[in-house]
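Sanity check. The docking grid for zinc ion depends on where the pocket ends up, so I'm generating a full predicted complex first rather than guessing from homology. Inputs follow.
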Amino acid sequence: MFRRGFKTWCETISTEKRRALKIPLTAALDPRLVARDMRIAVRYIEQIPNLEPGTIPQLTVHDSDVWSALTVCHNGKYLIVLNSAHPKTREANTLMHEIAHLIIGHKPARLDITDDGLMILSSYDKQHEDEANWLAAALLLPREALLYARRRGMTVPEAAAHYGCSTALFTMRVQTTGVDVQLRRSKSGR
Ligand SMILES: [Zn+2]
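Predicted complex below; grid placement will be based on this.
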C-alpha cells in the first residue's frame, strides 16, 4: 500500500513540524499554523474573487457533499480553498490533508482563471489520497499525543475534541500506532 519507510517518515515529519513551530508533542497542532509556516494561503470559497455568478451556491449548497477542499497552484503560490458548508469539526482534518499533499510533494491541481471563472484541470489519484490521509493523521495525532490522552484517561470523544479531529481518526491512530500495547507493557514493567 505505501512505499517502504513512508509510515516512519510521517511520524518524523509530525515531530519535526511541532518542534519547528515550538508546539509541544502532546499538544494539538493547528493546521493554519502549518499553512502559514509553509506560506500556503487558506481561503473559503466565498473569498475567491472572479468566480462565475452562481458558482458559490452551486459549490456550497448543491455540490457541497462532493468536495471538502482543494489545493491549487497559481502564479507559483499555493492556495487551499475550503468548503464553508462543511462542519468546523471536519475542517482541521480537511486542511491538514491538503497540507499533507504539499509536504509529501504531490503536485496539486493546476488552476487556470479564465474570463468566466475558475477551472480545475487535474486532481490527485488514489495512492496520493491514501498517503495524504496517513500523514494528516500523524500530524494531528503524534504518538506522544496519543500516549498523553491515554495516560490522562481522556475518553475518545474528549481526546478527539482536544486534538480537533474525529473520534474515528483518534481510534485509527491508537490502533495503528500500538500505543495501548506500549502502555500495558510499561505498566507491567516489561
Ligand atoms: Zn487529497
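Relevant for the grid: The CA atoms of residues 149 and 159 lie 6 Å apart.
Also worth noting: The pocket of zinc ion is lined by residues 97, 101, 124, 129, 132 (CB under 6 Å).
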